[in-house]
Amino acid sequence: LEEIVPKPVQDTGNILKQGYLEKRSREHSFFGSEWQKRWCVLNRRTFYYYANEKSKQPKGTFSIEHYSVRLAFHLRKDSRRRCCFELTCPGKRTYEFTAPSPAEAEDWVDQIQFLLKDLSSLTIPCDEEDEEELYNDVDSSDSVNTASHNTTLNQDEPNTDEMEEDDIYEVLPGKQLNKQ
Hints:
Layout: E1 17-24, E2 35-42, E3 46-50, E4 60-63, E5 68-71, E6 84-88, E7 95-98, H1 102-120, H2 143-156
Antiparallel strand pairs: 1-2, 1-7, 2-3, 3-4, 5-6, 6-7
Keywords: Cell membrane, Cytoplasm, Membrane, Nucleus, Phosphoprotein
Domain PH: 14-117
Protein name: SKAP1 protein
């Protein structure tokens, strides 16, 4: 297993997401709070959490590899329940967080899911709607469209007789401008 070296916030590398979250403590006492505000930083494969954004040493770190993430409304019974998410991995500790808003919780989940897909494959994942369609500019089987396409192009060509001295038009192959 790869050991994670604790780092100050500024040295965590390529930060993909950061911000304050409430983290559920593993062992909360009768007097201590069950949820503690933490500055959380996510880079390509590691989740760091600090006491605050200026902390030199993280309170904890873990590799997100092999974890799964999901919204977890069952973690709280109060008005913040729609802001909760958790990271789980069989045989490892479950991490539970509350974001400042439901939208922010969804964004954390989306970012972590994106990284998890990236870590589990050799290629960077992309959404289906982001994929470019492959198409042919000129369909050789449809000669009628090709002919009308060429005619349209010819109509858009500038008339060389009407050109001014400014030479703002591109000279097409086979056409010569008569400069005087």
